[in-house]
């Protein structure tokens, strides 16, 4: 991959699924390239079984460079479309992990199941866009003043309130 100019956070972006490598020959081989036995990856696990809207089952990839340290022998992913349903199944012990929960339950879950709620750092942005062509916000000084009035810590902790970390302005306003 070649970039037009340096991008300091590029290495962080490569951890996103959008940057996972796939072999062009496999994609070009036809519609079945994502099925068990056909899907080629470079991770610790390979797809063993897939039932659409029911489950994905992965097992250790014997070709993985560090396979000796892959201790979990099978993982079953269960697609659950509603955060509340996933949370109920987790709390009932039906599933071992869920990647999301209703945001309005965050504080309650922290209290009820301490040590089990984790919000990992992730690349994300909340922002306000202004018409910078006309009106008061056409003046860069007004936009800068507005930016300076935002308490990012309060926004992250009290408004969003689910473990987000505040960041500074992403560019000149």
From TrEMBL:
UniProt cross-references to PANTHER family, sorted A to Z: PERIPLASMIC BINDING COMPONENT OF ABC TRANSPORTER, PERIPLASMIC MUREIN PEPTIDE-BINDING PROTEIN
One record GO biological process: peptide transport
Q: Which GO terms describe its molecular function?
A: peptide transmembrane transporter activity
Q: Which GO terms describe its cellular component?
A: outer membrane-bounded periplasmic space
Q: Name one Pfam family in it.
A: SBP_bac_5
Q: What residues does the Solute-binding protein family domain cover?
A: 2-168
Its recorded name reads Solute-binding protein family 5 domain-containing protein
Q: What is the lineage of its organism?
A: Bacteria, Pseudomonadati, Pseudomonadota, Gammaproteobacteria, Enterobacterales
- What organism is listed for this UniProt entry? Klebsiella pneumoniae
Q: Which domain of life is it from?
A: Bacteria
């Amino acid at each position: 991959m070649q970039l037009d100019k340096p991008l300091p956070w590029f290495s962080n972006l490569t951890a996103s699924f959008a940057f996972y490598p796939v072999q062009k020959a496999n994609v070009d081989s036809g519609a079945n390239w994502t099925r068990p036995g056909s899907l080629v990856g470079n991770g610790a696990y390979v797809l063993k079984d897939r039932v659409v809207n029911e489950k994905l089952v992965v097992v250790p990839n014997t070709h993985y460079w560090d396979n000796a340290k892959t201790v979990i022998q099978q993982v079953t992913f269960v697609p659950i479309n509603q955060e509340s349903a996933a949370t109920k199944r987790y709390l009932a012990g039906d599933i071992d992990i869920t990647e999301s929960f209703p945001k309005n339950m965050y504080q309650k879950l922290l209290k009820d199941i301490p040590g089990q709620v984790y919000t990992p750092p992730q690349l994300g942005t909340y922002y306000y866009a202004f018409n910078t062509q006309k009106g008061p916000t056409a003046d860069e000084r007004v936009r800068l003043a507005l930016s300076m009035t935002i308490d990012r810590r309060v926004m992250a902790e009290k408004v969003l309130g689910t473990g987000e970390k505040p960041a500074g302005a992403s560019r000149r306003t």
